[in-house]
Amino acid sequence: MKRLTPHHIYALQPYQSARRIGLIGRVYLNANESPWTNTIKCQHTNLNRYPEFQSSILLNKYAQYSNTSINNILITRGADEGIELLVRAFCIPKNDKIMFFPPTYDMYAVVANMYNIKKKIIPILSNFQLDLINIKKYINDVKLIYICNPNNPTGNFFLKSDIISILDIIPSTTLLILDEAYIDFSIKNSFVSKICKYANLVILRTLSKAFGLSALRCGFVLSNPNIINVLKKVSAPYPIATPVSDLAIKSLQLENVKHVQKNILQVVFNKDFLVKKLQSFSCVDHVFPSKTNFILVRFFKSDVIFQYFLLHGIIVRDQSYKIGLNNCLRISIGTIKECHDVIQVLYMFEGKKL
User: Fold this and answer.
1) In the record, which residues are listed under signal peptide (predicted)?
2) Domain 56-253 adopts which CATH fold?
3) Pick from 32, 36, 281, 307: CA 20 to 30 A from residue 115's CA?
4) What is the pLDDT of residues 97-127, one digit of tens each?
């Protein structure tokens, strides 16, 4: 296979998703999923027919939700496909570069490696903000800039003024891509209103997080029509299955959107509860502020804590191998019962009683 496979693919380290890692437990807090099952149902009798290339009803529904035009939207198989389509459409292998800012979502690096695209990596600062000095130094030498905002796994927003300053100076041959996978938990911080002002701004969205539809694999690229039309050229012929678009349409009905907003408030409540409790443990060094449905926690011995959680059936995400995140674990916000489970296990670890 080595002689058959291109070197960059043979050497590729695939993205290690929560399911791909395959840890088994009773409480899953490692993939930033909604802890509540979705009650939306669908029935179809026309599965013998191919779907629309882009569901017109879904486009209208998401345009209404995101306060944009249908001409500014491309429906994708999760935000992940959006990340890949942008590289496929705008980057030349072995020639162009993308820029991103670790610790952040690993798929930016994985997709670059898949397509043999060069990478300009500029770590974020110790305060989890962008290193504007170095970004501006190299900004004229990259094709795509990926910013996860709010950032995964740190959970924070980057300063709006810093992002605007990048938009104001990037050349017309560079796209700034804001990955807003977690924006629904703090929607007022979205940059969607800037799409019309900045022709090279691209926003990625998903229904996987706040909408609780991770299994659906439905996302959106928001940008100006020129960019959307280029992306359509490299998209699959029938990218969104009929059951997927049908369920997505139902999820964007006003009644369900209100239900999602209620769940978001519950996530915030559960998060505040969990953070307050975690701060009382001697094994916890620091709990980082988060505007998402997860928290990043620095323990004094994260490897020991990780294994202790695993022993008691609680699966969290190890982040300690990432730059600047020594001894850090990422914990998704679950139900209030699941938050109590986390606390109980830590009480057991420290030999305390509830």
Assistant:
1) none
2) Aspartate Aminotransferase; domain 2 (3.40.640)
3) 32
4) 999 999 999 999 999 999 999 999 999 999 9
